[in-house]
Amino acid sequence: MAGSRIYKLGSIFTRVEGLLKAGGMQPSEQPLWLDVYRAFPPVEEPSFYRTVTATGPVRPILYPEDTARMQFYREHGNTIIDLQNTTELSPCQRFLQESGHLDQSQ
Prior knowledge:
mainly alpha
């Protein structure tokens, strides 16, 4: 039975559907996303064995401020940042704004 729980054998949708049909999961316990998935199924069923079709080489995603950010953290290290405080910028963001690496819109 343990082999049927392996992630390669089916999508999470088919496993949840199987649990609901077999009585392993009550309808009141079903995940919120299940109704949305039923209403809007994907074009192709997600599968572990599906190969990705390459559309070209993967472009490196580097922004101009990335090198400045790297140098800042190399010199000053990481600091503790309060993610709930949206009014105050992190020291790195302040450095990038003052040095002109970021647009004023951010």
